[in-house]
Amino acid sequence: MSRPRRAPRAGDARADRQSKVQAWLDALKGAGLKLTPQRIAIIRVFADDPSHPTAQDLFERLRGDFPTMSFATVYNTLDALASRGLSGELNLGGAARFDPNTDTHHHAVCDACGAVVDIPADPVAPAQASQVRRATGGFVVEREERTYHGLCERCARSGAAAGDASRSRARARRAAPSH
Ligand SMILES: [Zn+2]
Ligand SMILES: [Zn+2]
To answer: Which range marks the domain in which residue 83 is found?
Structure first.
């Protein structure tokens, strides 16, 4: 009788996450930011969050555990990683969305609820890069990010209309405390 095989990458993924978290902590230290319990918690929660959260999203999630934490602490922690190229940052209109996934990938964005889903992708093919180089008179491609717009499975099923996301995000912004 053969035992069900475990996903071969489970251990690797855990090790990857560990070393990514460690690299992020080192980067914060290098940026002159103190490794406070708050910053360590921000990093840990961010590493496990595939939803491409805004700083406000993480601030609200962590506020219960750290009542004295400021929004600025969350923002500058995430920004320190993104500005060093150690995490991704997405601008879809509205507040920046931060992305812990540093593997090459594209995004599918739901125009109704704003959900962002990662799609694994291959690095830019050399033929594609040279086509761009020819078409632009010498542009050197470093990476490619595609964004697919539409409706996530849940919204498609519930009959939501595209365009609801900007309205509900605008409502959230009005309700959020200003900083
Ligand atoms: Zn949706
Ligand atoms: Zn992503």
So the answer is: 16-102
pTM: 0.79
Q: How far is the CA of 99 from the centre of ligand 2 (A)?
A: 5
CA distance 91 to 35: 27
Residue type (1 letter), 16: D
What is the number of the ligand closest to the CA of 51?
2
116-120, strands of its sheet edge to edge? 116-120, 105-110, 147-150
Q: Which residues of the chain have pLDDT under 50?
A: 1-2, 5-7, 178-179
Q: What is the CATH number of the domain that holds 67?
A: 1.10.10.10
Please, which residues have CB less than 5 A from ligand 2, an ion? 99, 101, 118
- Predicted confidence at residue 158, as pLDDT, reads 93
Q: Which ligand is nearest to the CA of 156?
A: 1
